[in-house]
Amino acid sequence: MNKRFPDSFLWGGAVAANQVEGAYQTDGKGLSTSDLQPQGIFGQRVTRTEGDFGIKDTAIDFYHRFPEDVKLFAEMGFTVLRTSIAWTRIFPEGDEAEPCEAGLAYYDRLFDEMAKYNIQPMVTLSHYEMPWGLINKYGGWASRTTIDCFERYARAVFQRFQHKVKLWLTFNEINMSLHAPFTGVGLPEESDQQAVYQAIHHQLVASGRAVKACHEIVPEGKIGNMLLGALLYPLSCRPADVMETLQQNREWLFFGDVQVRGRYPAYMKRFFAERNISLQISDQDRLDLQNPIDYISFSYYMTGCVTTNEEENQKARGNILSMIPNPHLASSEWGWQIDPEGLRILLNLLYDRYQKPLFIVENGLGAKDTVEADGSINDDYRIQYINDHLVQVREAIEDGVEVLGYTSWGPIDLVSASKAEFSKRYGYIHVDRDDSGNGTLARTRKKSFFWYQQVISTHGESLS
């Protein structure tokens, strides 16, 4: 087997504006949904008052320190960096007629800095945040007004950065709205399925419009979707378990089906009918959906199991996405099951299903790191995790899957999305800050920094 990845393969890391930038009220930025979730996406939504504290308000201060960080990414050999644009830096309330120049200028500086080192930006338009103003005034994605506002925002950034950004993504982990409606579509957490799926429909329509706009404004660019790769296995070979697994995998794959094929699949029509969900879909919506994405991107952290055994299901309640653990797999400190082979399975499944290029835009290990007396951080567990997953990516490429690249999650320590923790670290670069917000923010290279540097320089030949 060829141990070397294709020369065109893009290597890098992925971050999100709301988890690294900080500067949450700087240069005219408006309040976002992320700003109202200072304890993370599974935390309580709060009302922000002057002088209160949220760990993401400063995060790792990437807003001011990005030249230092981009230089470190370049030292590792990155050829791509996935980041997001904070929608509220461009349209603070979400419904303004004109974009905020200070916000646009900030991203100009960031993309120019990346260009100095030949690092290609991959930009997510909406990564777990949207303007609070759109929720406050219109009800978020429950309203068709938000579709128009998103299209205006997308066109503004395509226009401004058309010569600097060629790789785009629409919505981060778009299927997460099923589990966190406020984060995904700006709806109350207790919203019923009718409301959530109608809001998701509006988001899918907006995604289609963004694809069309990107192709018009950035003709040589590529725009993809982004799925939370929640691959599930049957817990047993009982046909009922296999059928239930098929149904549960379809609940997230349907987003990709719509974004690739431009229409709702028949199985979702049955799903809606059986639950008395009736979506308002206009003729224009149907046209807007018929703008297929160019590539499929996804996150991959773990797999889970499915069974029709109610006793087993009860035990799994409250687990991440209520997944049943696989008895054949080990888990991380946070209970996320480690399944490198599952990544190969998922890559093959997605490629067989869609025949579109794939991009792994999130994968990594959240762990507590120990800083030794000499300042070193020996994160061999992280090296092992990423090594084993990349070996499976190489296997998938040998299987014939077209994989464009790999951006591991959090190449520099950042605030975790789920609970806004610093102690759950993903980075090759350590940031001196703790869960209480104490620390100097100094950057330090971990052992994994030099390991990943070698992986990139050898195009994967150094993987074991």
TrEMBL record:
InterPro entries: GH, GH_1_N_CS, Glyco_hydro_1, Glyco_hydro_1_AS. Pfam families: Glyco_hydro_1 (PF00232). Its EC number is 3.2.1.86. The keyword Hydrolase applies. SUPFAM superfamilies: (Trans)glycosidases (SSF51445). Gene3D superfamilies: Glycosidases (3.20.20.80). Keywords: Glycosidase, Hydrolase. One of its GO terms (molecular function) is 6-phospho-beta-glucosidase activity. The active site is at E362. PANTHER family: 6-PHOSPHO-BETA-GLUCOSIDASE ASCB-RELATED, GLYCOSYL HYDROLASE. This is 6-phospho-beta-glucosidase.
